[in-house]
Amino acid sequence: MHNPPLNARRWISPSAVIAVAQLLGTSLWFSANSAAQDLAHAWNIGESDIGWLTSAVQAGFITGTLFMALAAMADRFRASRIFALSAIAGAFFNACFAWFSHGLPDALLYRFLVGFSLAGIYPLGMKLIVSWEPRRTGMALAQLVAMLTLGTALPHLLRALGAGLPWQTVILASSVLALIGGGLIYALGEGPHLPSVRSRGDAGAARGRAAVLSAFNARPFRAAAWGYFGHMWELYAFWTIVPILVSRTALAHLAPGWGVSGVSFAIIGAGALGCIAGGMLTRRFDCAPVALGALAISGTCGLIFVLSWPVLPPLSLAALMAIWGASVVADSPQFSALSARSCPADMVGSALAIQTSIGFAITVVSISLSTELLVRMGLNAVWLLIPGPIVGLAGYVLTVRGGRRAALA
Question: Looking at the whole model, is its pTM more than 0.85?
Fold first, then answer.
C-alpha cells in the first residue's frame, strides 16, 4: 500500500516528513511576492498589481480545491500520488512564471495555475497526517500548519540570501524546493489508518461526491466549519496588513536594523510557535477548547489593538502583536482536526477540501475589504477583522448546544 524506504526507517516520524514537505511545497505560494520590487521595475507595475498576483494564486487554489472536492479526487486516488504530482505541476508553472512571463496578463495565468496546483498539496497534506497519526491529529496538524506559516515567509528568506541574483533564479529556487517536497511524500506513501482506494471503487467515489454536499449535515462538522470560517476571515487579512500596521505604528522604529519586513516576518513567524504550542496543549485537552481559546485570544488582541494602538508604548505594542501573530493561526489545525474526526474516514479528503475551498473564498473578501478600508480609514479599519472570531465562536457554540438540545429532546 505504501513504499518501504522511508516507512522502514524510523529515524524521522511520518508527520515530520509531511510537515517538511508542506514547508517546501508551499514555498510556491508567495514566491512572486519575494520579487515584488524587481517585477515592479521590470514590468512598470504598481503595488496593487502585485496584489493581483497574490489574488490569482488564491483564486487558483479555490478553484483547485473545489475541483478536488466535487470530483472526489482526494478519496479516489492515493493522497501521496496527488501530492507529488501537484508539487511537480506547481514547480513547472512556477518556473514558467519565471521564464516566460513578460507582463501582468501572462503572469496572472501562471500564478493561477500555481494556486490550482497548491490545492493538491495543502489539503492532501492534512489527509496524509490523518492517515499516519489518527490518535494525535491535533499535534500533527499543528506541525503541518506551522510549516505552512513558515512557508509563506520562505521566499522572502530566499530573496534575502540571493540579493545579488536575478529574480528569476530566486523564483526557480522555490520550484526546486517544491520538487524535493513532492519526492519526500512520494517516498513516504500512504499511512495505514485510512481505507485503501482500491476498496472503495466507483461506489466509494460516488459516496465521496455526495459527502461534499452532506458533510455539513453533521453537527460536529458544521460546528468546526463555523469556527474555521471565522478564523479564515481574520487570518489572511491579518497576514496581508501586518506590514502596514508595522509601518504606521511605533513598531517600525523599535528594531531599526530589522526594518518593516523584518518585524513583519517576526510577527507572522510567531504563528509557527503558536501552532506548536496549541498542538502540545492537545496532549492534555481536547482540540475544541484549544481552538476556541486561540480564536478568542486573537479576537481580543484585535480589539485591544483597535482601542489602544495610538497610546500603547512600543514594547507593549510589540508584545500584543506577537501574541496576536501566534494566536491568529494556532486554531487552524485544531479546527481541521475536529472536522477530520467528525466525518467517515473515506470522506476525509473531500470534506477537508470543500471546507478549505470555502475558507479561502472568504479570505478573498476580507483581504479586499481590509486593504481598501485601510486606505480610507487608517488603522481603525482593523475593526473589520474582529467579526471573524466573534462569528466563529458563536457559530461553534450555538451549533454544539443545538445538537445537545436535540439529543435530550
Answer: no
